[in-house]
Amino acid sequence: MRKQLLHGCMCLMLCLTVVQGWAQAVKMTVTGKVTETGGSPVPGATVVLKNTQKTGTTTAVDGSFMLSVPPSSTLVVSAIGFSTQEIALQNRTAIDVQLTQSSSVLNEVVVTALGVSQEKRTLTYSTQELKSEQIMKAKEPNVLNALTGKVAGVQITSSSGMPGASARIVVRGATSLLGNNQALIVLDGIPINNDETGNADQGGGGSRLVDLDPSIIESVNVLKGAAATTLYGSAGARGVVIITTKSGSGNRKPTIAVSSDLSFDKALYPDLQQKYAQGSRGVFFNGEDQKTSLSWGPLMDTLKINGQPAPRYFLPDLFFRTGVSTNNSVSLSGSTGDRSTYFTSYTFFKQLGTIPTTDLLRHTLFAKYVTQISPKVNATFQLNYSSTDNNRVPEGYGLQSPLWTVYSGPISWNPFPTTNSDGSQRVFRFSRNNPFWGLDNIHNRSLVSRYIPVVTINYQPTSWLTITERAGADMYGEQVKYSEARGSTNVPTGQIVDQVNTFRQFNNDLIVRASKQVRDLDMSLTLGNNLYSSYGQYITTRGVGVAIAGFDNMSNTEKQTYAENHYLTRKIGFYAQANFDYRRMLVLALTGRYDGSSVLSQERQFYPYGSAAFAFIFSELLPASLSSAISFGKLRVSMASVGNDNIGAYRLNTPFQAASISYGAYTFPFQGQNGFLLSPNLGNANLRNERTNEFEVGLEMRFLKNRLSFETSYFRKNSIDLLTDGIPVSAASGYGSTILNAGSMQTKGFEFLLNATPVRAGKFAWDLTYTFTRIRSVVTQVNGGLDRVQIGTSWAVVGQQYGVLIDNKFARNDNGQLLIDAQGLPYSGGTGILGNLSPDWLMGLNNSLRYGAFSLNAFVDMRKGGDVINSDDRYGYFYGTPKVTENRESRVVAGVNASDGSTNTKVVQAQDYYQRLNAVGESVVQDVTYLKLRTLGLSYSVPSSLLAKTPFKTASLSVTGRNLFIYRPHFTGPDPEVSSYGSSNSAQGIYANSAPTSRSVMFSLRFSF
């Protein structure tokens, strides 16, 4: 009996051993996605088989993973900053894991340089991230405008309220005197173009980031300092905006999300006087047989025409309309099988501007496919396509701008009909178009098709080594047609302009990342190579003399001229970064890059630079008794030196240019032969890179289990060897100017970011975010023999902040009193510095209040200081149209007589006074301090209990107001946050007959099923 029992036990043990061995030999493939509580993916999370060290993997950028394990295994999922979870598979092949944040550490993961996700806790530099929800609350068609006031150290300026208008983004102040100062834009690891294009006439164009649909964005992370951007090479010296797009959800059924927005926009145009008619010295001009540009005529209340009270025609009310915008989007996301996820989206945005005939139509299609090709290889394939159609009108104070006449036209003049009986244009003054005639006869249309493909392949031969190959392109073609009918005051015979712009940019990165832990030391090394090329071609054909009305074809013109510009630039870079993390307390990051650029001297094409950054997480040393009060504390210090090839192509040589001017009786082309001259701007074959040396120190703290946190940074950077164009040379050389590595500038700044949750009780929660920025950029050198160089509207002057305004100043005595001439009027005492473009400081405050299914969001931002030239007032003073000119009482100008110093007592008329102000620029340099209620939104998320018996998973309704309140104590225009001529350096600092910004109300509906 005993032998039989022993034999049975041995057989049973043998069977169990065989079954266990078979179970371990049979494996299944498990796929999943790791997210945090808010639904954002957790890249770099570790997924391992319990009680093993070798069977495991890490999650991809979108949080997805794939692992082969036995059917009844238990997985351990962990990530820095999150609590570890154990998941029993129970034969499941698809799982979703949601990690909760650990309150004892800084737990945020952000996308940094080269698309690498990194724990914010260990960052040694300043960066700030905005999630998709924060971006979409702004309701802006251009994602840059959605960042305004929300990121410390960043200044964003819109050019105007025109549909598709450009936006300028500068991170931590200017780094170049005349070169590009705008931040580099990176989409999923690939630099993309943000040039300003689309306008063949006066005014700003559209920055090409308007082609991007904000609804596909998962997050935007701004890398600010040089230590943060070194890996991005030359263009990164200006700061980097990293845009990460959305990915699909793994291991889920397909999810369809639909959103629809409807917005109504009301133009915010200047305050204008409506009391006085067209004329001069109180004498009425009817605008028909008596024409004048002036509105210094009689009171409208006393004016009678044919015995009847004169009617009023307030041109802004007649000209502007209610703008209407719609934005409809549908997306599909999910997974295919166990290894792949997908996300695809289509959006149609249509904006009808407040100016009739202006609009922006944008079709965008986005698709991303993430797949695990094998246990060691995963790949991401994505394509962003956009088709943009933009109609705009000329802005500024050109003859063809309708806004000039709208803002300066007399209230007594009826603009209709727009033509006389003989078909000629009907105007109230010579040399200015009837604005309504301009709407019918002057057009500027831009059509853009754009493709941004990106392919990323990750190969992980071992758990500690990852090799990434990322290739991407940015390609677009643009057709611009500008037409001006015969009869225009600008070109009386009419003109047609055709522009064809072609842009191609290619980028390739090969990145090797290795990580290793040796006891208490975590080490990682990144090595990479970057290849970059950019090509642009701009072809312009201008035809003058339109023969057939309404036929906007170049063959319909009498004389055509043709111009072509193109460029090709190439860069190559080699980079390395080493990170050392000791006991999660001491972090050291060393970065180096070696770049070569085709635009620099052959002897100086290659240049090295790098950074060293250190972080001390001192909260690790605090006793446990303080952990509930002080959640986290980090001190960081960094030093960096970065190079910048901030110059266009072909500046090493002196090119030829077409001789289009007349020489006596000869004009080129002459008898069918073109003539060419060397450019008056002498090339320089010795150009080298600019360089910026930056020191930064920062402090990050979190309190009360992360309910209160702040981050503050101080930086100082010196930019040297700045490429300065327009340096005068002796006329005896045959040239007028040249370009040199001549300039230098010092920038100091302070940034502060505060996040707090003052109240969290039951269904109610209140969150707030506060940002503060103070930056000073001072020019320290222009060139050995110069103390200033002109940027455009503004100047770079040694010893002054970058971008000062220089114009006529009032003559004053030693006590600062105005000097008055014999006519009783102040006068110009020569030119001088009247102000500067830079704000004293910037501030943003966002409040978010939630109660149950309702949420209220209010964002206020403020700018203190900084100046612009208000050209609307400058010309308006002469015409008599600004609101202030309604006071037409005679007056005595406070001041002293220039002849004898006695107090001025001479009485002058209002017309003489304001027309004198027109001649002195100081009178219209205005402080653009403002306080804005930028957005105010109320939303309602339908509770899931109410959707239980419906096909919908989620549903929400919201209403949002934009620009509901603007306080501008020193600026007489409607909105001081504009730059009328675009986003370039040379366009800053002037407000001149811009398309007005709007006060808007938007209704939104979102649901998914």
Note down, in words, how this protein is organized.
α6 (402-408) packs antiparallel against α7 and α8 (871-879) runs antiparallel to α9 (910-917). The chain starts with a helix and ends with a strand. A hairpin with a 2-residue loop joins β13 (184-187) and β14. It is mainly beta. Residues 4-25 have low confidence and may be disordered. The chain has a 22-stranded antiparallel beta barrel. Strands 10-17-18-13-14 form a 5-stranded mixed beta sheet.
Mean of the pLDDT scores? Answer: 90
Question: Which structural class best describes the helix and strand composition?
Answer: mainly beta
How large is the radius of gyration?
Answer: 32 Å
Work out the number of β strands.
Answer: 60
Number of helices: 10
Percent helix range: under 10%
Q: Span between N and C termini? A: 67 Å
Largest sheet: 22 strands, antiparallel, barrel
Strand residue content: over 45%
Write down the overall geometry. Answer: globular
Low-pLDDT segments, ≥5 res? 4-25
